[in-house]
Amino acid sequence: MAFLHLTSLLHVCRLLVMLSRLGALVAALILVFKTVDVIAGKPEVRLVLNTTTPNLFPALHDFVAGFYDGAAGKSHRPERGPLPALRAGTSGFEVAADPQAPLLRYEEPSPWKRLVLLYLGASDDYLSLAWVVFFGVVSWLLHRLLQDVKPSTPFTLANAHRLRILGLWILGPIYFGQALSYLALRALIPDFYTPNLAEPLSHYVRLNTEASLPGWEIGLMLLVIAAVYQRGVELSREAELVI
Amino acid sequence: MPIIVNLDVMLARRKMTLSALAETVNITLANLSILKSGKAKAVRFSTLAAICQALECQPGDLLEHRPDPRDLRSADE
């Protein structure tokens, strides 16, 4: 299988990284256009809801809810939680039934709040500031990493360092930053209540970064690969000093 | 490293240059320089045998164990 050879893989990966750098540039430009559109455009905000679990620490919430349900002898909860009843925009907001997920619609007079909602990844299907920065940083690090890898010298200390930065970047700013983003979201969105849900709707709004950015598992895996890679660097250096 | 490489001593005794030895044992001059300067981490038996044959000596003539007093102290403890 010649395509799995290191040289062939490097050629393919370099091409893909070049395309992703171009993609990051295009995404940055689209974000600039959307910024102008959000500031000067309509005050309407559309946010995706997931009423199964609150947005902050959903796994912990599910774990606790499952524990109490099990203790009370209740059956497994349905995949999608109780949908809020459809209602007209009498209290300044509307919950719209979308085929994919319910939407929360309301008018936000402050352009800065609308802008922050866009940058956090709440009011667009895929675009967010974190996504654009992540793509920029990752494509740049991968570009440098692939430039350093040569078939004769595959292991370099600089690349081990880059892999570690990549892993830490995903674990830190991306994963824990998302929890902070949800806290900011709760502060930005007014407290709209619906009959079926105990908490305000802002606690069920979902950011698109949940799907578009890698999770902590990828960050942890990259940290392990970086440590193995560094050991490879040390071993290859030792091997060079065996006469 | 408590192992001292006395390659330069043996070369002087045999009146041989490092380049000539490198050519005889078919090792690069750079690798032989690493061995001579004591930077090498390990020596293959095949390399050692080739050097001993070229210099007509024993491995003990090339290598010497000179332990650091601190290493001996920690071994006693």
Structure description:
The complex is a heterodimer of chains A (243) and B (77). By secondary structure, chain A is mainly alpha-helical. Chain A has one domain (2-43, 110-240). Chain A has helices spanning 6-40, 58-71, 111-120, 129-148, 157-188, 209-212, 216-240, and strands at 44-48, 93-96, 103-107. In chain A, strand 2 (93-96) and strand 3 form a beta hairpin. The longest helix of chain A is centred in the N-terminal third of the chain and has 35 residues, at 6-40. The two termini of chain A are 34 Å apart. In chain A, 23% of the residues are buried. Chain B has 77 residues and is mostly helical. Chain B has a single domain (3-67), classed as Orthogonal Bundle (434 Repressor (Amino-terminal Domain)). Chain B has a two-stranded antiparallel sheet with strand order 1-2. The model of chain B has no long low-confidence stretch (mean pLDDT 87). The A-B interface holds A 238, 241-243 and B 27, 31-32, 34-35, 39-44, 47.
SSE topology sketch:
The complex is a heterodimer of chains A (243) and B (77).
Chain A: H1 6-40, E1 44-48, H2 58-71, E2 93-96, E3 103-107, H3 111-120, H4 129-148, H5 157-188, H6 209-212, H7 216-240
Antiparallel strand pairs in A: 1-3, 2-3
Chain B: E1 3-5, H1 7-13, H2 18-25, H3 29-36, H4 45-55, H5 59-62, E2 63-65, H6 69-76
Antiparallel strand pairs in B: 1-2
